[in-house]
Structures are given as structure tokens and as C-alpha cells.
Amino acid sequence: MNAETVRRWMTQAAASVREQRDYLTQLDAAIGDADHGANMDRGFSAVVAKLEATDDAPPPGRLLITAGSTLVSTVGGASGPLWGTALRRAGRSLGDSPEFDGPELADALDAALAGVVELGAAQEGEKTMVDALAPAVRALRQELGGGAGVADALASARAAGEEGMRATAPMRAAKGRASYLGDRSIGHQDPGATSTAFILAALAQAVAAET
Questions:
Q1: Is 65 helix (H, G, I), strand (E, B) or coil?
Q2: 10 Å Cβ neighbour count for 136?
Q3: This prediction's pTM
Q4: CA-to-CA distance for 136 and 157, rounded, in angstroms?
Q5: Which of 72, 13, 73 is nearest to 44 (CA)?
Q6: Which CATH class is domain 3-208?
């Protein structure tokens, strides 16, 4: 995996978020500000534009740092800082190497998760993006440790993230605007976990396209 993998991931993520923009807005309308779809669409569209305008050939870690910084500057609400932190931490984990392998990707996603947990002060079970990201990272590392190839391991990570996303519906929100609703947040799937599942799926698709 290399810089083109990252570019393909961000392009696919932007396309997925745009396609699901209205759905994300509907989810957020139930327990938030009804702007998650628009914010994520704007942010990842800006990421793709920024990476396309990059004339030199930076390593994949640098591309992720650029993507994260772009999200922070263009996405409102919590999503920009959270995903911005996640991608910048992942990029710093990869460093300046021109290529990365499965274990290095797992380390990068672990760093991304740690950044989200640190910034959002959220743990699993609190109805946030962590409920999709954390099980996906665990599944990726477990599958790689068992000898699976990167594409297959990411497919399992994608499935784990989607399961975590669906599991947020019966949860009572403990973080963010949704937490103000108390028990009324129960029964609604978390929009942040949902967009996270889409972004993880985009990563799996980007890597699968190379195999």
C-alpha cells in the first residue's frame, strides 16, 4: 500500500459520504443538528480537492496529515476535529515511508482511534463513532495476526464496524448533543458511527482494488 492507496481511500470516502448525505442528515435530525451529512460531504470533498492540487508526491503519511488538517478547517461540529485528529494521528504513525503494510496500517488506525478517544473523551457503548471504529480496528489486528491478507482483514474490519454501527441504535447517548435527549436518544442509530462505517468501507474497497 502506498500514496495511491490513500488517495483512492479518500476519493471513495468522499463518494460514499456524498451518496449517503441525505441519509446521514436524517439520522442526525433525530438526535443532533441535522448537519452531519452536509458537513461530512463538504469536508471530504475538500479533502479530495486538496489532494488533487498536491503537485509533488508526498508519502502516504503526509497525505493523511493533509487530509486531516483539511477536515479540521472545513467541517463544522465535532466531526471535523475528530476525523481530522484521527487522520493526522494515523499519518504521523505512518511517518515518511513511501509504503506501508498491514501491521503498519493497523498501528495507524490504532493511533487514529486513540486520538478520537482522547479528543472526544468517549468510550465504546456511549453511542459515538468509537462504537464503529474500535471494533473495526480490533478485527483488523486479529485477522492480520491470524495470517489473513490485508484485503480480507479489512473486509472483516468493515463488517465489525458495520455491526458496531448498528449496535448504537439501542444505546442511550452519553456524549455530544444527542446526550441531551436522554432516553429519547434510544432507538436511533448514531450518525457519527454510521459515517465512520462508510469511511471504513471505503478503505476496504480502496485496498481490495489493488489486489
A1: helix
A2: 29
A3: 0.93
A4: 4
A5: 13
A6: mainly alpha
Distance, in Å, from the CA atom of 85 to the CA atom of 62, rounded to the nearest integer, reads 14
Say what the pLDDT of residue 57 is.
86
Query: Residue 189 in contact with residue 27, Cβ under 8 Å?
Result: yes
Please give the Cα distance from 168 to 154 (Å, whole number).
21
- Spatial neighbors of 117 by CB under 8 A, at least 6 apart, are 123, 130
> Look-up: residue for cell 495476526?
145
**Could you state, in order of their start, the residue ranges of all structural domains in the chain?**
3-208
CA dist., res. 52 & res. 49, Å (int): 5
In 3D space, the residue among 133, 129, 116, 124 whose CA is nearest the CA of residue 32 turns out to be: 129
Range ranked top by mean pLDDT from 31-40, 83-92, 121-130 = 83-92
The string of DSSP letters for 177-211 reads GGGGGGGGGTTS--HHHHHHHHHHHHHHHHHHTT-
Q: What's the rounded Cα separation, in Å, for the pair 161 and 152? A: 14
Kindly tell me if the per-residue pLDDT of 172 is higher than 80: no
